[in-house]
Description:
heterodimer, A: alpha/beta, Rossmann fold, six-stranded mixed β-sheet, 10 strands, B: mainly alpha, 81% helix, globular
Amino acid sequence: MRIDLVNLSFAYGHRIVIRNMSFSLNNGDFLVIQGKNGSGKSTLIKCLLGMNPVKSGMIFYNHEDIVGFKKWPTIGYVAQRFEDFNYEFPITVNEILSVSQVKRKDSSEKLKLLDRMGILPLLNENINNLSGGQLQRVFIVRAMLNNPELLILDEPTASIDQENVTYFYKAVNELHAAGVNIILISHDDVVETLDFTHILTVDSESDYSFQTKTEYFPHKEGEAK
Amino acid sequence: MMLSFFTDLFTQDFMQRALLAGLLLGVLAPLMGSIVVIRRLSFIADTLGHFSLVGVSVSLFLASIGWSAFFDKPLYLGIVFSVIGGLLIELFRRYYKNYKEISMPIVMSLGAALSAIFFSLSKRTGSLYNYIFGSILTITNYYIVLIGITLFMVLLLFLLFGKQVISVSFDESSAKFQGINLSLFQISFIVVLSIAVSVLLEAAGVLLVSSMMIIPVAAAMKVGWSYRSTLVISILFSELSVFLGLWGAYSLRIPSGASIVAINIIVLVIVAFIKRIVTRKRVKIVNPTLE
């Protein structure tokens, strides 16, 4: 998958949140988007997901304009909070996963992913009994079941306890190693243990910098050598 | 009285028709109701019911001015108007993006107002009572066939599009990433729901349509452990209420819709009560181990 942002700008009324942003991602890339609350991370993601209409500038997926883009199942998206998810009505993890396009015979794929995410024993559990972090991983598995070329994770560690974050990052690294392109949004300081290739830092002045991992961690990278 | 209900059930045609219609509706109502409840649209059935009533009243009005050849079956215009009501709701939901629920009372009052106007113009206000409270005991074979067709259609849709139903109901915003065309789903949902509401109107009446759809589901979701089990339990609750409700309606000579809904509420209260006791016991057992 190739992604191109060309001079993207976005404003809410007169308040400009994204100004002339351009970058490209290629197959095998893993982008971390980092910035404080209110720096426009979510706005950018909504643009990438086609939820914010792109009025100024352009976004391309595999050279295809996002305006009129139809192949959304090639993108897996896991939201930061699931405000839109309707809780309380009983539904099991397995039933939630049944919505994906994966065929019934490929259920070994599903079990493998659940195992990798550490939630295999929860397969027949009612989701209302799950913790936020467990639910997040269920949604990651759901997104992964369509074999997406790109996985977008919006602050995935927000609802995971500190001791599980390392474990979770390891799982994300594994997905990346397996050939999935990843965009991960984070408002924490990003850690080196994450195998990202590029980092986009945004701030509230609608400035941004797009760097590779070596540009971002030059000093530590040097030490390692 | 209890005996006469059962003897009449076996000897009287109208009782058999009422029971059959009731049992079919007892499956249809909670099936549609489950989607409505999950999507937090509980008021939509009421609103569509009021708009369906506009269709009924317009039919009666047109029949009264001599167009009876086309409008002797008020159900059809009921469906048409119910769909119009659904589209109006969608329109207002988009207009008041952050206050989507405003759409319901606006469309519902418009429906109530138009119904009152056309019922009065048709000079058939006498039949209004049946449409408000329902009259399953006077149901005709013709309606039973219609209910059967509607139920068959809904079951087929659940079988064919179960994935889409789950995906959109629980998580509308991510439906796109499952390759679902949300607008197409919305329109189809409104059309099918409108048909179901219009068909239910005859038996349950406009005031009780949504109760038959929602209360069994509300009770079942407190005891179900999965989506599928909750659907099955809601249908069981619904059938129980239809059966006991018909018995009550027949024995006490009260409107059938009212009696069915009253039993529905009793089931809900009993379920909530038992659930509370069971949960308390569990807490007591769990707590000592925690300490």
